[in-house]
Design goal:
91 residues, Arc Repressor Mutant, subunit A
Length: 91
Protein backbone atom coordinates (compact mmCIF):
# COMPACT_ATOMS: atom_id res chain seq x y z
CA UNK A 1 0.00 0.00 0.00
CA UNK A 2 1.10 3.54 -0.65
CA UNK A 3 0.16 6.75 1.13
CA UNK A 4 -3.53 7.27 1.91
CA UNK A 5 -4.15 3.56 1.41
CA UNK A 6 -3.88 3.85 -2.37
CA UNK A 7 -2.70 0.77 -4.21
CA UNK A 8 -1.57 2.72 -7.28
CA UNK A 9 0.61 5.77 -7.36
CA UNK A 10 0.63 8.49 -9.96
CA UNK A 11 3.69 8.57 -12.19
CA UNK A 12 4.90 12.13 -12.75
CA UNK A 13 5.43 13.51 -16.25
CA UNK A 14 9.28 13.54 -16.26
CA UNK A 15 9.27 9.88 -15.29
CA UNK A 16 6.80 9.10 -18.09
CA UNK A 17 9.19 10.80 -20.51
CA UNK A 18 12.15 8.77 -19.21
CA UNK A 19 10.21 5.50 -19.59
CA UNK A 20 9.32 6.31 -23.20
CA UNK A 21 12.86 7.46 -23.99
CA UNK A 22 14.19 4.18 -22.57
CA UNK A 23 11.86 2.20 -24.86
CA UNK A 24 12.80 4.45 -27.80
CA UNK A 25 16.46 3.56 -27.20
CA UNK A 26 15.57 -0.01 -28.11
CA UNK A 27 14.80 -1.55 -24.73
CA UNK A 28 11.78 -3.80 -24.39
CA UNK A 29 8.62 -2.91 -22.50
CA UNK A 30 9.24 -5.51 -19.79
CA UNK A 31 12.82 -4.38 -19.38
CA UNK A 32 11.67 -0.76 -19.05
CA UNK A 33 9.06 -1.82 -16.48
CA UNK A 34 11.72 -3.56 -14.36
CA UNK A 35 14.15 -0.67 -14.73
CA UNK A 36 11.63 2.00 -13.63
CA UNK A 37 9.71 -0.23 -11.19
CA UNK A 38 6.38 0.11 -12.94
CA UNK A 39 4.13 -2.55 -14.41
CA UNK A 40 4.60 -3.82 -17.97
CA UNK A 41 0.99 -2.82 -18.59
CA UNK A 42 1.81 0.77 -17.63
CA UNK A 43 4.63 0.84 -20.19
CA UNK A 44 2.38 -0.67 -22.88
CA UNK A 45 -0.40 1.82 -22.10
CA UNK A 46 2.06 4.71 -22.11
CA UNK A 47 3.43 3.78 -25.53
CA UNK A 48 -0.13 3.32 -26.87
CA UNK A 49 -1.15 6.70 -25.41
CA UNK A 50 1.72 8.43 -27.21
CA UNK A 51 0.89 6.61 -30.44
CA UNK A 52 -2.80 7.62 -30.26
CA UNK A 53 -2.57 11.17 -28.92
CA UNK A 54 1.03 12.25 -29.43
CA UNK A 55 1.14 13.19 -25.75
CA UNK A 56 2.19 11.53 -22.50
CA UNK A 57 -0.26 13.50 -20.38
CA UNK A 58 -2.45 11.28 -18.24
CA UNK A 59 -6.03 11.00 -19.40
CA UNK A 60 -8.80 12.35 -17.24
CA UNK A 61 -10.20 9.79 -14.85
CA UNK A 62 -13.75 9.51 -13.64
CA UNK A 63 -17.18 9.96 -15.07
CA UNK A 64 -17.04 12.48 -17.93
CA UNK A 65 -20.65 13.67 -17.97
CA UNK A 66 -21.08 14.37 -14.27
CA UNK A 67 -22.26 11.95 -11.65
CA UNK A 68 -24.60 9.02 -12.10
CA UNK A 69 -27.28 10.80 -10.09
CA UNK A 70 -27.15 13.97 -12.21
CA UNK A 71 -30.46 13.18 -13.99
CA UNK A 72 -32.07 12.84 -10.54
CA UNK A 73 -30.47 15.90 -8.95
CA UNK A 74 -33.70 17.87 -8.60
CA UNK A 75 -35.49 14.94 -6.91
CA UNK A 76 -32.59 14.49 -4.50
CA UNK A 77 -32.59 18.19 -3.58
CA UNK A 78 -36.35 18.23 -3.03
CA UNK A 79 -36.31 15.01 -1.00
CA UNK A 80 -33.53 16.31 1.24
CA UNK A 81 -35.33 19.62 1.71
CA UNK A 82 -38.61 17.86 2.65
CA UNK A 83 -37.42 15.01 4.85
CA UNK A 84 -33.75 15.59 5.53
CA UNK A 85 -32.89 12.12 4.18
CA UNK A 86 -33.09 10.06 1.02
CA UNK A 87 -34.11 6.69 2.36
CA UNK A 88 -37.68 5.69 3.07
CA UNK A 89 -36.88 3.17 5.80
CA UNK A 90 -38.43 4.02 9.15
CA UNK A 91 -37.63 1.73 12.06
Amino acid sequence: MFENGAIHRRVDDPRRQRVVAYVDEGHGHREAARHFRVSPRFVNNLINLRRQTGSLEARRQGHVGGGKLEPHAEFVRLRLAETGELTQLKR
